[in-house]
Amino acid sequence: QSVLTQPPSASGTPGQRVTISCSGSSSNVGSSTVNWYQQLPGTAPKLLIFSYDQRPSGVPDRFSGSKSGTSASLAISGLQSDDEADYYCAAWDGRLNGYVFGSGTKVTVL
Amino acid sequence: QVQLVESGGGVVQPGRSLRLSCAASGFTFSSYAMHWVRQAPGKGLEWVAVIWYDGSYKYYADSVKGRFTISRDNSKNTLYMEMNSLRAEDTAVYFCARAPSYTGPFDYWGQGNVVTVSS
Predict the structure, then answer these.
(1) pLDDT digit string (tens) for A36-71?
(2) Which residues of chain A have a Cβ shorter than 8 Å from any chain B Cβ?
(3) pLDDT of amino acid A91
(4) How many CB atoms lie within 10 A of CB B89?
(5) Do residues A36 and B105 touch, judged by C-beta distance below 8 A?
(6) Among the listed residues A2, A61, A10, the one whose alpha carbon sits nearest the alpha carbon of residue B46
(7) Residues in chain B with pLDDT < 50?
(8) Residues 67-106 of B with CB under 8 A from A
């Protein structure tokens, strides 16, 4: 049982916009910066979004993040076949004194 | 370029011990917090432990507290995870990851090292 809740799957056709939600609590999403990671099949995770809406160098601006209260969202616009991957939200939990991940969302490009 | 290379994984019997290493290069190792994250077969990511840049503080997930010990040697640019009393549920790919702070984010990850606990 993950501390952060994500939908197990999301899908869209090429060019569409897909949104992934991440629900937490006041001890994690509500009080810490939220980060998003992308994990392509068989590879290590990669930092996609940090501090809610910042992109590391090299991450296209098709990926964007936002936060409201104890929930956060990742949006992928102009969906491409290369975007098929698992996506995880994560944040530091001040009550648990640990880093918590969402359950992960598998994005499929139809 | 930043590189994190894990080693030390393998197959071990339940109740035995194993030590993972993560060799860092391409950055000032002693300026970053370091984390271990694991992923059981077919499952999601699970955070395991963090160590401060100077080793002064360490936090662990409840699932490994009292059995795993994270440590680092800044003179060797290496992170370690001593895993004792291993259980079947510890079977996973173990990743080391770099973070500018103990709260993350994990901006660089190792390639992962497989640990299998089985009799």
Answers:
(1) 999 999 999 999 999 889 999 999 999 999 999 999
(2) 2, 32-33, 35, 37, 39, 44-47, 50-51, 56, 86, 88, 90-92, 96-104
(3) 96
(4) 10
(5) no
(6) A2
(7) none
(8) 95, 102-106
Distance (Å, whole) CA B15 – CA B83: 10
pLDDT tens, position by position, B15-33: 999 999 999 999 999 999 9
Query: What is the pLDDT averaged over residues A1-15?
Result: 94
Amino acid at the residue B40 = A
Tally: H helices and E strands in chain A: 0, 9
Q: What is the pLDDT of residue A1?
A: 76
The alpha-carbon gap from A85 to the nearest alpha carbon of chain B, in Å, equals 12
Cα–Cα dist A75/A93, whole Å: 23
Q: Taking the CA atoms of A86, A66, A103 and B72 in sequence, report the sign of the dihedral they define.
A: positive
In degrees rounded to 5, what are phi and psi of residue A63? -100, 130
Residues A84, A108 contacting (CB under 8 angstroms): yes
Fill in the amino acid letter for A48: L
